[in-house]
Specification:
- The protein is of the alpha+beta class.
- It contains four helices and four strands, in the order H-H-H-E-E-E-E-H.
- A hairpin with a 2-residue loop joins strand 3 and strand 4.
- Helix 1 packs across helix 3, helix 2 crosses helix 3 and helix 3 runs antiparallel to helix 4.
Amino acid sequence: MFATVEQYTVRCGHPAPGVPVEVLLARASDDIAAALIAAVYDTALGDVARALADAVCAQVEYWLAIGSDGITTADTWDSVSIGPVSLSGRSGAAPTPVVVSGVELAPRAYRALHLAGLLPGEVCEPW
């Protein structure tokens, strides 16, 4: 896994919701790894580890915002409950995910990976 529950709590500014956030972090880590399947980067660099953790946390935060469990989406939901989090109706469309290597990434997850130069076809050079 690229991120811990503690990193999620710090990055998102609130404690992990009453859902199995460890499961969501593991699913998001799998998605980030799949999106980066053809990328080359040095995992020993602290900036890389931080970018991967940021991307995973952003992916989970996005899923929770759209009512997803990391497997399915509820983009047409009228009412969704995940633990103590309840969502109903939609006042606007959710941000469009960015597809990388066939994986839908949250816009903020994509941005974290892009800024770190971790996406396939980009080269991450040590500063």
